[in-house]
Amino acid sequence: MPALRGAFTFLTRVPVPGAAPADWHAFRRSPWTFPAVGAVVGAVAGFAFLAPSPWTAAAAYLLAIYLLTGVTHADGLADLGDAIAAHDPDRRLAVLKDADLGVGGALALAVTLLATTLGVLALATGFAGGGVLVGGAAFRIVLAAEVGAKAGMATLACLGTPAHEGLGSAVVGEVGPRSLVPVAAVSVPVLLAAPPGALPSLAAALLAGPAVALLLLVRVRPWLGGASGDVLGAANELGRAVALHAGVMAWAIA
């Protein structure tokens, strides 16, 4: 429970009764809590698909996601976008810490938000490449996408090294690759009892988040020297967007 309280405090804006400083330290040593929180966030956001209009469902999904998680992760994506856009590699760390929003950050935010919105609309309309999404498949894909995005953050925490001192350095590098085993154990249950024909879509959505995180990990090492809190936030936002489209494409292909 302390680790979960710390995870909800760090990853969401949900009020956590009885939260204490010790919860933060328990969370840092328990990356399995990332996908556990993702399951709750994804389940709540998935109720947006009860809306009668696909446009309303997409709007309700985005509202639920950002009401629950805040803008911290999106801010990390913006900071990373600005850092990558910096022409001088030696200034990237300085740009990463700069609070001002530049063109690179604005573009990263806009494209990612558009991709997320289009992915949700594809699910909300009930069609993916002409194949009708049946039953609770759309809800389950959204759930798997959110769990996968948070599993991507956990992947960075387990495999990454800190880029600099800060909030990210308190999470990244605290545990090692072995801690990915409980992360997988918490994540895989979203694949159980899948609706007919939905298992490939759920698997694609779930695996997309860690795949994006691994790609980021490889790319940011030469750029920034390691992973930071901004990279963690970017992995969450990018992982969610890619996961939604991965789920839709897997459904269309199947």
UniProtKB/TrEMBL annotation:
One of its GO terms (biological process) is cobalamin biosynthetic process. It holds the Pfam family CobS. Its cofactor is Mg(2+). InterPro entries: CobS. Signal peptide: none annotated. It is a multi-pass membrane protein. It is an enzyme of class 2 (transferase). It catalyses: alpha-ribazole 5'-phosphate + adenosylcob(III)inamide-GDP = adenosylcob(III)alamin 5'-phosphate + GMP + H(+); alpha-ribazole + adenosylcob(III)inamide-GDP = adenosylcob(III)alamin + GMP + H(+). Keywords: Cell membrane, Cobalamin biosynthesis, Magnesium, Membrane, Transferase, Transmembrane, Transmembrane helix. The chain crosses the membrane at residues 32-52, 101-124, 198-218. Pathway: Cofactor biosynthesis; adenosylcobalamin biosynthesis; adenosylcobalamin from cob(II)yrinate a,c-diamide: step 7/7. PANTHER family: ADENOSYLCOBINAMIDE-GDP RIBAZOLETRANSFERASE. Joins adenosylcobinamide-GDP and alpha-ribazole to generate adenosylcobalamin (Ado-cobalamin). Also synthesizes adenosylcobalamin 5'-phosphate from adenosylcobinamide-GDP and alpha-ribazole 5'-phosphate. This is Adenosylcobinamide-GDP ribazoletransferase. It comes from Halorubrum halodurans. The gene is cobS.
